[in-house]
Amino acid sequence: MAAPEIEQLIQLLSKLPGLGPRSARRAALHLVKKKETVLQPLSLALQRVDQAVKSCSVCGNLDGSDPCSICTDPRRDDRVICVVQDVADLWALERSNSFRGRYHVLGGTLSALDGIGPDDLKIDQLVERARDSGVEEIILATSATVDGQTTAHYIADCLEECAVLVSGLAHGVPVGGELDYLDDGTLSAALTARRKID
Amino acid sequence: MAAPEIEQLIQLLSKLPGLGPRSARRAALHLVKKKETVLQPLSLALQRVDQAVKSCSVCGNLDGSDPCSICTDPRRDDRVICVVQDVADLWALERSNSFRGRYHVLGGTLSALDGIGPDDLKIDQLVERARDSGVEEIILATSATVDGQTTAHYIADCLEECAVLVSGLAHGVPVGGELDYLDDGTLSAALTARRKID
């Protein structure tokens, strides 16, 4: 057995997603061996995140300021709000560099199995934002799973009273994807939504 | 892009063994979302390890005290020293609960490729310890790799002048291992070292 301090570190590391008991042990040993270059900077970064990062009261993004830097960015388009399940999805869209509007993070999807109802998600706040006269379109970018699509349909119903266009992401063949490896649902959606090549 | 504090955390996490950029991002998000239950305990554990854990001046083990708890344990056998490459190997042997002597952590193996010579390993300290009249056997438990075995042979030469028995781990079929999946070297070693079943 390692020292109790190290055992505790291993235990905490092994609870992180993507780390099992074995890799947590390797990571802990790496940290202990490189105190100055790895452990101390990580410890500092954790404290900084702990103090600085909070949830944006407008969109639910995690950032060092509230409202977050996306909500306060004057170069972004106020007219379009993209609704995502999770902050990770917001990050993915930001990495793709293809969206210049605002976001709204739901915090999950409706799920009968997990007992997540409309009140557990930030749907009321979204409807509130949609009522603003400046908003013209709401893009529902929830996952293409059953729960994600159920949530999208539910939100679309909630937004019916608002004067906004409600849209969803296109289905189709992923860029770089091989047809042979695609599921039937995606192939059929890609065929149905086929486009004229010009 | 996420907040700079989070980006820095992702960057530091992705340098840990077993975590790539993608899993580091997932781990960071998990940490930020569960500040009280995950981030703060981990931050505390890192600070505790940083302050408490040091390298044992006798054997090279990492522990909260120096000499370490294994070196000072009165129930352990002073007559046998097991030589391992790394603290991780010491942990593995301790988990197997099959050795009750003392340890000596080399801190690596001789390696011409990586430019690691005898002076970079704790070999002098081992010879010093072996000169003690109480030590009867030194078990060289380095890896069964070329570098590990080279190191073992080198150490065996260094220990020739000392009045100690120098031994190595047995080679053979791993317990639970299937013959079909074993390499030729292991199979041939297991055959050569075959034992009468009684």
UniProtKB/TrEMBL annotation, chains A, B:
Origin: domain of life: Bacteria
TM stretches of this protein: none
Signal peptide interval: none
Zinc-finger keyword on record: yes
Species this chain originates from: Terasakiella brassicae
Keywords: DNA damage, DNA recombination, DNA repair, Metal-binding, Zinc, Zinc-finger
Cited NCBIfam families: recR
Protein name per its UniProtKB record: Recombination protein RecR
ZnF C4-type span: 56-71
InterPro entries to which the protein is assigned, alphabetical: DNA_Rcmb_RecR, Rcmb_RecR, Rcmb_RecR_Znf, TOPRIM_dom, TOPRIM_RecR
HAMAP family listed in its UniProt record: RecR
Lineage, uppermost ranks: Bacteria, Pseudomonadati, Pseudomonadota, Alphaproteobacteria, Rhodospirillales
GO terms classed as biological process: DNA recombination; DNA repair
PROSITE patterns in the cross-refs: RECR, TOPRIM
Any one GO molecular-function label of the UniProt entry: DNA binding
